[in-house]
Amino acid sequence: MNEDNRVVTGRSGRAERRKKSSAGRNIARLLLVLVTIIVAMFLSVVVALAAIMKGPSPAARDVMVTTVLESGNLKFLAGLFLSSEEIEEIVSRTSMSKMDEQVDTELVDTQGMAEGNFDENGIEIIEVNGRSYYGTMMIVKDPSKVKVATTYPWSEYGKELEEIVKDSGALAGVNGGLYAADKNKGGSPYGVCVSDGEIQLNKPWGWAGLYMIGFDNDNKLRIENIEGWSAKQFEDFVKDEGIRDAVAFQDELSDANNHFVPLVINGEARELHGAGSGANPRTAIGQRADGAVLLFVTDGRGSAGHLGATASDLISVMQKYEAINAANLDGGSSSSMYYNGEYLMTSVTLYYANGSWRLPTAFVVTGGGN
């Protein structure tokens, strides 16, 4: 190689190194800007929370505390600003009375013909706007078409609602019961699960306030307190009562869970203290006297600027749409509704905003007739 070529090569190498160095500096600057933005956002949230938790409005503080306590990963926020005694006092004041009434199946007639503006699939969709939430009500004319679809046999990962609906040959669905939501794996339900008469999970013990929510062979919604039951007790109940499809959710009002189940039993609303709960995305199920099934899902946690729905909101909506019996299901980031090839309500989590969290169970609506 002559001297001229060596000079050109040296210049080219230096230019290439300068380009790489410049690119590295640009990436470092970009990362610094992103970190600064994230830290600033975090500090803004902390300051805003401090203003609410320690501010002059007890009502705003109570709503915020009960709201974060219902979340899976944000419970710690309440403890950053308040003592355990203060949190316990807020939870006890903003709660609801126990509801021990048994569902009277004679109050529901599933043999008649429910009335409504149903489409060709026997489904009616209604938009519901509340003060702090947006929701969608799905009314299903024929209760025999509402079933529990699952990902059984259980594995580490569940499936998004769309997959569960399609895999079961259904048209529509909403998220179901209590499950292991850690890291959005969603492969395992908790408590109990029945699908098409088959018990797929039978571990009701060890869960405070565990309820079974589902349908019997007469297509009537059943809301049953099964706290402390053995596997044999649940097996006998399923057989004796003819339970065809069911999931579990928890009614345990404390700073540990702050979950609730019964909303309306035999036409009577649950008695609340204040709003009864915090405001969050919700999924609820109900049944009218004519047998039609109500499936209701709301947004929240900042989606469209909405905080979410409270227990009081759910009860009001279920009463407005004439529910004889109604129950709260799993909510939060799990809340989602799918119908006829699209999501009507989706997860509030930014990176799952066009789908749902992975789930092991769902209430689905099968097709055919109106």
What's the helix count? 7
Q: What low-confidence regions span 5 or more consecutive residues with pLDDT below 50?
A: none
Content-based structural category: alpha+beta
The dominant shape is globular
Work out the radius of gyration. 25 Å
**Order of helical and strand elements:** HHHHEEEHEEEEEHEEEEEHEEEE
Q: Please summarize the sheet with the most strands.
A: 7 strands, antiparallel
Distance between the termini: 85 Å
Helix content class:
25-40%
According to DSSP, the number of beta strands is 17
Strand fraction:
15-25%
Count structural domains.
2
Strand order of the largest sheet: 1-2-13-12-14-10-11
What is the average per-residue confidence, as pLDDT, rounded to a whole number? 87
Question: What is this entry, summarized?
Answer:
It contains seven helices and 17 strands.
Structure description:
The protein is an alpha+beta fold and 370 residues long. It folds into two domains: 3-93, no CATH class; 105-366, no CATH class. Helices cover 29% and strands 25% of the residues. The protein contains seven helices and 17 strands. A seven-stranded antiparallel β-sheet has the order 1-2-13-12-14-10-11, covered by helices on one side. A five-stranded antiparallel β-sheet has the order 3-17-4-15-16, with helices on one face. A hairpin with a 4-residue loop joins strand 7 and strand 8. The longest helix is centred in the first third of the chain and has 51 residues, at 3-53. The chain starts with a helix and ends with a strand.
